[in-house]
Amino acid sequence: DWTMAGYREEATRKIREQVGNSKVICGLSGGVDSSVAAVLIHEAIGDQLTCVFVDHGLLRKGEAEQVVSMFRDHYNIPLIHADESERFLTALEGLDDPEAKRKTIGRLFIDVFQEHAREVGGAEFLAQGTLYPDVIESVSFSGGPSVTIKSHHNVGGLPEKMGLKLVEPLRELFKDEVRDLGRELGLPESFIRRHPFPGPGLAIRCPGAITREKLAILREADAVYIDQIRRHGLYDEIWQAFAAILPMRTVGVMGDGRTYDYALALRAVTSVDGMTADYYPFTHEFLSETATRIINEVRGVNRVFYDCTSKPPGTIELE
Ligand code: XMP
């Protein structure tokens, strides 16, 4: 009968068989999927694998440090940490259309990844943490016609362009199975339970024009919000939670002064696979405590909204 330990053994055997003595590169996003894929492949072929982590300047607070330290220090997996934030943020300047943002990020990601992959020298394979639902979702959205609602950012098109073959050891798995496999491989529980984070990162949580100032505010506010969720023991009950910074300033009052600062939207949903989702029913106490903390602790925010839209009709991200 089927066990995760059996899957692990079978998967490593298949990877060795597919790859032989060739080199493999793997793009890390900091998410669970690409991390599990990388650790599994490293188990199979050791230092024939090199990971490339592209920091596009759209990560959350502390995220780059966490990913780099886990892979380099904890797992000792060869890792190229490419800090390309200036390049991405400059390219995104002035863009406010959601699909234009995704396309710019996707295109630049390919360029940057390709440049750094050359450092590896002679890689024949590209590893991706593609899951079974990704395979389906790219074909059609369930219950609807076959239309693309959002062009999900992945490294599509890259393998052909670089003449690389794909290694996708998670292609048959669902998210919860990937988490089990991660546990089986000894990834820390805190990492395995991390909420999903989209490839385009904070760009799609900053509707309207992206500025460095807004990103800095958003990073701080999101960290306070997630800290609140953890302190209240709610993190594992929620499928995904994040703050978004809205493209507007509103008037407020603080002490005896008038403020004119950004408004934030908080989002939290429960879901099984991200295809449909319900907004999370926080208590009023939680919401008011969180709004107060954010406004007190984060400069530049004077108003907080809670998004109570489910999916459908809303999507999980704001863009
Ligand atoms: P939506 O907003 O489409 O999100 O309801 C469903 C899930 O997908 C993630 N998401 C993305 N992931 N690139 C990604 O890698 C994207 O462009 C993208 N857009 C949404 C989202 O975070 C949620 O988990």
Spell out the key features of this protein.
single chain, 319 residues, alpha/beta, GMP Synthetase, Chain A, domain 3, 2 domains, 5-stranded parallel sheet, 4-stranded mixed sheet, 41% helix, 20% strand, globular, binds xanthosine-5'-monophosphate, ligase, GMP synthase activity
- Along the chain, the helix and strand elements come as HEHEHEHHEHHEHHHEEEHE
Radius of gyration: 20 Å
**Oligomeric description of these chains:** single chain
| Spans of at least 5 consecutive residues with low confidence | 139-147
Function: Catalyzes the synthesis of GMP from XMP.
Domain GMPS ATP-PPase: 2-194
EC number: 6.3.5.2
Protein name: GMP synthase [glutamine-hydrolyzing]
Question: Strands, helices and their partners?
Answer:
Blueprint: H1 4-19, E1 23-28, H2 32-45, E2 49-55, H3 63-74, E3 79-83, H4 85-92, H5 98-120, E4 123-127, H6 132-137, H7 158-162, E5 165-167, H8 175-184, H9 189-192, H10 212-231, E6 240-254, E7 257-270, E8 278-279, H11 284-297, E9 301-306
Parallel strand pairs: 1-2, 1-4, 2-3, 4-5, 7-9
Antiparallel strand pairs: 6-7, 7-8
Bound molecules: xanthosine-5'-monophosphate.
Residues 102, 150, 152-153, 196, 198-200, 240, 274, 311, 315-317 line the site of xanthosine-5'-monophosphate (XMP).
Pathway: Purine metabolism; GMP biosynthesis; GMP from XMP (L-Gln route): step 1/1
Domain GMPS ATP-PPase: 2-194
Subunit structure: Homodimer.
Your description of this structure?
Catalyzes the synthesis of GMP from XMP. Pathway: Purine metabolism; GMP biosynthesis; GMP from XMP (L-Gln route): step 1/1. Keywords: ATP-binding, Glutamine amidotransferase, GMP biosynthesis, Ligase, Nucleotide-binding, Purine biosynthesis. The chain has 319 residues and is of the alpha/beta class. The chain folds into 2 domains: 189 residues, HUPs (Rossmann fold), CATH 3.40.50.620; 101 residues, GMP Synthetase, Chain A, domain 3 (2-Layer Sandwich). It contains 11 helices and 9 strands. Strands 3-2-1-4-5 form a 5-stranded parallel β-sheet, sandwiched between helices. A hairpin with a 2-residue loop joins strand 6 and strand 7. The longest helix has 23 residues. Xanthosine-5'-monophosphate binds next to loops.
